[in-house]
């Protein structure tokens, strides 16, 4: 019996360094990819089924930009679940709502004066990252504070939504008021995917919108095998005259070929690199995580 106990103890002793070294290996890869970037790179990776995590600058407060549309969508759908809103509820959109910004919605209805459903506004905002749809939904929510309140009630302390798209466009410094910690964004994604925030129908609806995302094809999805399912939300800031880009981001859920799921949040902030380099950093980190956890 003593020999059996000794064998088990020796097995555990030798197993722990192997597990530790494997995790360290992925962290080292992330660090090697991130370090050459002329930016602050923040990364949080979670294997949903095993609970294994890899973090790099994951508690830094980093600029979100359109990643904020994910918590906004969660807040809207929470109100749908509570009966305050309905997906087929029509929202009147005026010409004033159509700002000079990135907006497929405005491209379709340049003069406004049209009724658009909550469901369609969510599709524009999430799948196409439409800025006007975002601000229209924020108006329906009575402003960013409603989103912030829902985050706090959901146990999320490291995400701040303070400014609308129009606010951020009005003054350069206001984009920095919408920030998150990558580890907290991963926690929010985890709570969302595991059904802790919304009803199953709302969770499934938003997940499909995120899978249908058209922005950032060279980020998380950039180096993954063709056909890999990724439910994600991107965020991209403008670039200043001196070449500073406060935000090039992508966060989401990757379906692995072994049936498991990776939750990843990757932020490249305050960068002096060009867009291709920033996006490649995200793609390489996502691919390293995909390869490691697909084994």
TrEMBL record:
<protein>
    <recommendedName>
        <fullName>beta-lactamase</fullName>
        <ecNumber>3.5.2.6</ecNumber>
    </recommendedName>
</protein>
<dbReference type="InterPro" id="IPR045155">
    <property type="entry name" value="Beta-lactam_cat"/>
</dbReference>
<dbReference type="InterPro" id="IPR012338">
    <property type="entry name" value="Beta-lactam/transpept-like"/>
</dbReference>
<dbReference type="GO" id="GO:0030655">
    <property type="term" value="P:beta-lactam antibiotic catabolic process"/>
</dbReference>
<feature type="signal peptide">
    <location>
        <begin position="1"/>
        <end position="22"/>
    </location>
</feature>
<feature type="domain" description="Beta-lactamase class A catalytic">
    <location>
        <begin position="42"/>
        <end position="268"/>
    </location>
</feature>
<comment type="similarity">
    <text>Belongs to the class-A beta-lactamase family.</text>
</comment>
<dbReference type="GO" id="GO:0046677">
    <property type="term" value="P:response to antibiotic"/>
</dbReference>
<dbReference type="InterPro" id="IPR000871">
    <property type="entry name" value="Beta-lactam_class-A"/>
</dbReference>
<dbReference type="GO" id="GO:0008800">
    <property type="term" value="F:beta-lactamase activity"/>
</dbReference>
<dbReference type="Pfam" id="PF13354">
    <property type="entry name" value="Beta-lactamase2"/>
</dbReference>
<keyword id="KW-0732">Signal</keyword>
